[in-house]
Amino acid sequence: MQIDPSHPRFKSLKIREKLVWGIKKGLTHPAGLLAHGRGEAFDYLLGEKTHDFAKKAIEAAGAYLISAKNPIISVNGNTSALCPNELVGLAKLLNCKIEVNLFHYSKKRVVIIENYLSRVDSKVILRSNKSSKIIFPDIASWRKIMLKEGIASADVVFVPLEDGDRAEALIRLGKKVITVDLNPLSRTAQTATVTIIDNLIRLLPLLIKKIKKLKMVDADNLKSLTINYNNKTCLNNSLKLISDRLKKSG
Ligand code: ATP
Ligand code: MG
Protein backbone atom coordinates (compact mmCIF):
# COMPACT_ATOMS: atom_id res chain seq x y z
CA MET A 1 0.00 0.00 0.00
CA GLN A 2 1.27 3.46 -0.86
CA ILE A 3 1.27 5.65 2.25
CA ASP A 4 1.15 9.41 1.83
CA PRO A 5 4.13 10.94 3.74
CA SER A 6 1.89 13.83 4.80
CA HIS A 7 -0.36 11.44 6.76
CA PRO A 8 -0.11 12.33 10.49
CA ARG A 9 0.54 8.66 11.36
CA PHE A 10 2.95 8.13 8.45
CA LYS A 11 5.78 6.60 10.54
CA SER A 12 3.52 4.23 12.40
CA LEU A 13 1.73 3.17 9.18
CA LYS A 14 5.08 2.48 7.49
CA ILE A 15 6.08 0.20 10.36
CA ARG A 16 2.78 -1.69 10.11
CA GLU A 17 3.31 -2.09 6.38
CA LYS A 18 6.79 -3.46 7.02
CA LEU A 19 5.37 -6.14 9.31
CA VAL A 20 2.65 -7.03 6.80
CA TRP A 21 5.43 -7.32 4.21
CA GLY A 22 7.33 -9.53 6.71
CA ILE A 23 4.33 -11.87 6.90
CA LYS A 24 4.13 -12.11 3.10
CA LYS A 25 7.85 -13.00 2.98
CA GLY A 26 7.44 -15.64 5.70
CA LEU A 27 9.65 -13.76 8.18
CA THR A 28 6.96 -12.66 10.60
CA HIS A 29 4.18 -14.77 12.12
CA PRO A 30 0.65 -13.25 11.91
CA ALA A 31 0.58 -13.21 15.73
CA GLY A 32 3.49 -10.77 15.49
CA LEU A 33 0.95 -8.13 14.48
CA LEU A 34 -0.82 -8.57 17.81
CA ALA A 35 2.44 -8.26 19.73
CA HIS A 36 3.18 -5.12 17.73
CA GLY A 37 -0.29 -3.76 18.50
CA ARG A 38 0.30 -4.19 22.23
CA GLY A 39 3.61 -2.35 21.80
CA GLU A 40 1.96 0.47 19.82
CA ALA A 41 -0.62 1.02 22.55
CA PHE A 42 2.12 1.51 25.14
CA ASP A 43 4.14 3.67 22.76
CA TYR A 44 1.10 5.93 22.44
CA LEU A 45 0.91 6.24 26.22
CA LEU A 46 4.64 7.02 26.34
CA GLY A 47 4.21 9.82 23.81
CA GLU A 48 6.31 7.95 21.19
CA LYS A 49 9.52 9.36 22.61
CA THR A 50 12.76 8.03 24.07
CA HIS A 51 12.63 9.18 27.69
CA ASP A 52 15.41 9.57 30.27
CA PHE A 53 14.65 6.18 31.87
CA ALA A 54 15.21 4.56 28.46
CA LYS A 55 18.45 6.51 27.97
CA LYS A 56 19.69 5.26 31.36
CA ALA A 57 18.78 1.69 30.39
CA ILE A 58 20.51 2.09 27.02
CA GLU A 59 23.71 3.13 28.83
CA ALA A 60 23.55 0.15 31.20
CA ALA A 61 22.73 -2.18 28.30
CA GLY A 62 25.76 -0.88 26.40
CA ALA A 63 28.01 -1.37 29.45
CA TYR A 64 26.79 -4.96 29.96
CA LEU A 65 27.17 -5.83 26.29
CA ILE A 66 30.69 -4.41 25.95
CA SER A 67 31.84 -6.06 29.20
CA ALA A 68 30.35 -9.44 28.24
CA LYS A 69 32.70 -12.34 27.54
CA ASN A 70 30.25 -13.96 25.19
CA PRO A 71 27.27 -11.79 24.21
CA ILE A 72 24.53 -12.93 21.82
CA ILE A 73 21.63 -11.23 20.05
CA SER A 74 18.39 -13.22 20.00
CA VAL A 75 15.93 -12.19 17.25
CA ASN A 76 12.41 -13.12 16.20
CA GLY A 77 10.20 -12.45 13.18
CA ASN A 78 9.19 -8.93 14.20
CA THR A 79 12.64 -7.67 15.10
CA SER A 80 14.22 -9.14 11.95
CA ALA A 81 11.60 -7.64 9.63
CA LEU A 82 11.75 -4.22 11.32
CA CYS A 83 15.47 -3.64 11.96
CA PRO A 84 17.70 -6.03 9.97
CA ASN A 85 20.49 -3.53 9.30
CA GLU A 86 20.65 -2.24 12.87
CA LEU A 87 20.65 -5.74 14.39
CA VAL A 88 23.48 -6.84 12.12
CA GLY A 89 25.31 -3.54 12.75
CA LEU A 90 25.04 -4.12 16.50
CA ALA A 91 26.38 -7.69 16.17
CA LYS A 92 29.35 -6.44 14.16
CA LEU A 93 30.08 -3.72 16.69
CA LEU A 94 30.01 -6.23 19.55
CA ASN A 95 31.74 -8.91 17.52
CA CYS A 96 28.99 -11.37 18.40
CA LYS A 97 26.45 -13.57 16.66
CA ILE A 98 22.71 -13.37 16.01
CA GLU A 99 20.54 -16.38 16.86
CA VAL A 100 16.98 -16.82 15.62
CA ASN A 101 14.61 -17.89 18.41
CA LEU A 102 10.89 -18.16 17.77
CA PHE A 103 7.75 -18.53 19.85
CA HIS A 104 5.75 -19.66 16.80
CA TYR A 105 8.51 -21.99 15.71
CA SER A 106 8.97 -23.61 12.34
CA LYS A 107 12.25 -24.77 10.83
CA LYS A 108 11.24 -23.09 7.59
CA ARG A 109 10.73 -19.69 9.20
CA VAL A 110 14.04 -19.92 11.11
CA VAL A 111 15.86 -20.46 7.79
CA ILE A 112 13.94 -17.64 6.04
CA ILE A 113 14.99 -15.24 8.82
CA GLU A 114 18.60 -16.49 8.80
CA ASN A 115 18.75 -16.00 5.03
CA TYR A 116 17.19 -12.56 5.23
CA LEU A 117 19.69 -11.31 7.83
CA SER A 118 22.56 -13.03 6.00
CA ARG A 119 21.89 -10.76 3.07
CA VAL A 120 23.11 -7.89 5.26
CA ASP A 121 26.13 -9.86 6.55
CA SER A 122 26.24 -13.66 6.71
CA LYS A 123 29.26 -13.75 9.07
CA VAL A 124 27.24 -12.67 12.11
CA ILE A 125 24.41 -15.19 11.67
CA LEU A 126 24.60 -18.34 13.77
CA ARG A 127 23.07 -20.97 11.49
CA SER A 128 20.71 -23.34 13.27
CA ASN A 129 21.79 -26.27 11.08
CA LYS A 130 25.44 -25.77 12.02
CA SER A 131 25.15 -25.69 15.80
CA SER A 132 23.75 -28.35 18.08
CA LYS A 133 20.54 -27.57 19.87
CA ILE A 134 19.95 -27.62 23.59
CA ILE A 135 16.46 -27.69 25.06
CA PHE A 136 15.79 -25.42 28.00
CA PRO A 137 14.15 -27.18 30.88
CA ASP A 138 10.86 -25.66 32.19
CA ILE A 139 9.88 -23.69 29.09
CA ALA A 140 6.48 -24.48 27.67
CA SER A 141 6.95 -22.76 24.27
CA TRP A 142 9.23 -23.40 21.30
CA ARG A 143 11.45 -20.68 22.64
CA LYS A 144 12.96 -23.55 24.62
CA ILE A 145 15.32 -24.35 21.72
CA MET A 146 18.72 -22.68 22.09
CA LEU A 147 21.91 -23.16 20.13
CA LYS A 148 24.95 -24.52 21.93
CA GLU A 149 27.30 -21.92 20.45
CA GLY A 150 24.76 -19.17 20.91
CA ILE A 151 22.35 -18.46 23.76
CA ALA A 152 23.41 -21.62 25.63
CA SER A 153 27.00 -20.44 26.07
CA ALA A 154 26.30 -16.68 26.31
CA ASP A 155 26.74 -14.68 29.50
CA VAL A 156 24.75 -11.65 28.26
CA VAL A 157 21.69 -12.02 26.01
CA PHE A 158 20.28 -9.05 24.11
CA VAL A 159 16.74 -10.08 23.33
CA PRO A 160 14.24 -7.47 22.22
CA LEU A 161 10.56 -8.53 22.44
CA GLU A 162 11.21 -11.50 24.70
CA ASP A 163 8.71 -13.78 26.43
CA GLY A 164 8.38 -13.61 30.18
CA ASP A 165 8.95 -17.30 30.84
CA ARG A 166 12.13 -17.50 28.82
CA ALA A 167 13.47 -14.28 30.35
CA GLU A 168 12.93 -15.90 33.75
CA ALA A 169 14.63 -19.12 32.60
CA LEU A 170 17.65 -17.24 31.21
CA ILE A 171 18.05 -15.39 34.49
CA ARG A 172 17.78 -18.69 36.40
CA LEU A 173 20.67 -19.97 34.27
CA GLY A 174 22.74 -17.05 35.55
CA LYS A 175 22.67 -15.00 32.36
CA LYS A 176 22.18 -11.25 32.18
CA VAL A 177 19.14 -10.39 30.06
CA ILE A 178 18.89 -7.09 28.20
CA THR A 179 15.45 -6.61 26.73
CA VAL A 180 13.43 -4.02 24.85
CA ASP A 181 9.76 -3.81 25.71
CA LEU A 182 7.31 -0.93 25.45
CA ASN A 183 5.18 -2.50 28.16
CA PRO A 184 6.75 -1.89 31.60
CA LEU A 185 4.23 -4.29 33.16
CA SER A 186 5.09 -7.37 31.08
CA ARG A 187 6.75 -10.29 32.84
CA THR A 188 9.76 -9.79 30.57
CA ALA A 189 10.11 -6.14 31.53
CA GLN A 190 9.78 -7.01 35.22
CA THR A 191 12.27 -9.89 35.07
CA ALA A 192 15.11 -8.67 32.85
CA THR A 193 18.43 -7.34 34.13
CA VAL A 194 17.99 -4.25 31.95
CA THR A 195 14.66 -3.29 30.37
CA ILE A 196 14.73 -0.57 27.76
CA ILE A 197 11.20 0.86 27.69
CA ASP A 198 11.24 2.24 24.18
CA ASN A 199 10.38 1.32 20.62
CA LEU A 200 13.00 -0.98 19.13
CA ILE A 201 13.04 1.13 15.99
CA ARG A 202 13.90 4.32 17.90
CA LEU A 203 16.39 2.84 20.30
CA LEU A 204 18.63 0.62 18.19
CA PRO A 205 20.44 3.55 16.51
CA LEU A 206 20.83 5.15 19.98
CA LEU A 207 22.22 1.93 21.46
CA ILE A 208 24.72 1.62 18.62
CA LYS A 209 25.83 5.22 19.11
CA LYS A 210 26.16 4.74 22.87
CA ILE A 211 28.21 1.54 22.47
CA LYS A 212 30.63 3.34 20.14
CA LYS A 213 31.17 5.91 22.90
CA LEU A 214 31.38 3.38 25.73
CA LYS A 215 34.07 1.47 23.88
CA MET A 216 36.38 4.29 24.95
CA VAL A 217 35.51 3.82 28.65
CA ASP A 218 37.73 1.63 30.88
CA ALA A 219 36.56 -1.63 32.48
CA ASP A 220 36.17 -0.19 36.01
CA ASN A 221 33.88 2.59 34.84
CA LEU A 222 31.86 0.17 32.72
CA LYS A 223 31.46 -2.02 35.80
CA SER A 224 30.19 0.89 37.87
CA LEU A 225 27.63 1.72 35.16
CA THR A 226 26.21 -1.78 35.50
CA ILE A 227 26.38 -1.87 39.32
CA ASN A 228 24.75 1.54 39.74
CA TYR A 229 21.93 0.78 37.32
CA ASN A 230 18.56 0.06 38.94
CA ASN A 231 16.02 -1.56 36.62
CA LYS A 232 13.16 -1.23 39.11
CA THR A 233 13.67 2.55 39.23
CA CYS A 234 13.51 2.75 35.42
CA LEU A 235 10.30 0.69 35.35
CA ASN A 236 8.76 2.85 38.08
CA ASN A 237 9.74 6.04 36.27
CA SER A 238 8.13 4.82 33.06
CA LEU A 239 4.90 3.96 34.89
CA LYS A 240 4.93 7.34 36.60
CA LEU A 241 5.34 9.07 33.25
CA ILE A 242 2.40 7.16 31.77
CA SER A 243 0.28 7.90 34.82
CA ASP A 244 1.17 11.64 34.78
CA ARG A 245 0.33 11.86 31.07
CA LEU A 246 -3.04 10.22 31.67
CA LYS A 247 -3.80 12.51 34.61
CA LYS A 248 -2.93 15.60 32.56
CA SER A 249 -5.22 14.61 29.72
CA GLY A 250 -8.10 13.64 32.04
P1 ATP B 1 5.38 -11.25 28.62
O1 ATP B 1 5.39 -12.65 28.09
O2 ATP B 1 6.72 -10.72 28.89
O3 ATP B 1 4.42 -11.02 29.78
P2 ATP B 1 3.50 -10.25 26.70
O4 ATP B 1 2.91 -11.61 26.67
O5 ATP B 1 2.73 -9.11 27.23
O6 ATP B 1 4.90 -10.30 27.42
P3 ATP B 1 4.25 -10.73 24.01
O7 ATP B 1 3.05 -10.85 23.16
O8 ATP B 1 4.93 -11.96 24.49
O9 ATP B 1 3.89 -9.80 25.27
O10 ATP B 1 5.35 -9.83 23.27
C1 ATP B 1 5.10 -8.60 22.80
C2 ATP B 1 5.79 -7.57 23.65
O11 ATP B 1 6.66 -6.82 22.82
C3 ATP B 1 4.77 -6.61 24.23
O12 ATP B 1 4.99 -6.43 25.60
C4 ATP B 1 4.98 -5.30 23.45
O13 ATP B 1 4.85 -4.19 24.30
C5 ATP B 1 6.41 -5.44 22.97
N1 ATP B 1 6.68 -4.80 21.66
C6 ATP B 1 6.05 -5.04 20.48
N2 ATP B 1 6.57 -4.30 19.48
C7 ATP B 1 7.58 -3.57 20.04
C8 ATP B 1 8.53 -2.64 19.53
N3 ATP B 1 8.56 -2.29 18.23
N4 ATP B 1 9.42 -2.10 20.38
C9 ATP B 1 9.41 -2.45 21.69
N5 ATP B 1 8.56 -3.34 22.23
C10 ATP B 1 7.65 -3.90 21.42
MG1 MG C 1 4.44 -13.34 26.21
UniProtKB/TrEMBL annotation:
GO function terms (MF aspect): ATP binding; ligase activity
UniProtKB keywords: ATP-binding, Coenzyme A biosynthesis, Ligase, Nucleotide-binding
Swiss-Prot/TrEMBL GO biological process terms: coenzyme A biosynthetic process
Gene3D superfamilies for the chain: Phosphopantoate/pantothenate synthetase
Cross-referenced InterPro entries: PPS/PS (IPR002855), PPS/PS_sf (IPR038138)
PANTHER family tied to this protein: 4-PHOSPHOPANTOATE--BETA-ALANINE LIGASE (PTHR40695:SF1)
Protein name: Phosphopantothenate/pantothenate synthetase
Protein species of origin: Candidatus Gottesmanbacteria bacterium RIFCSPLOWO2_01_FULL_39_12b
Lineage per the UniProt record: Bacteria, Candidatus Gottesmaniibacteriota
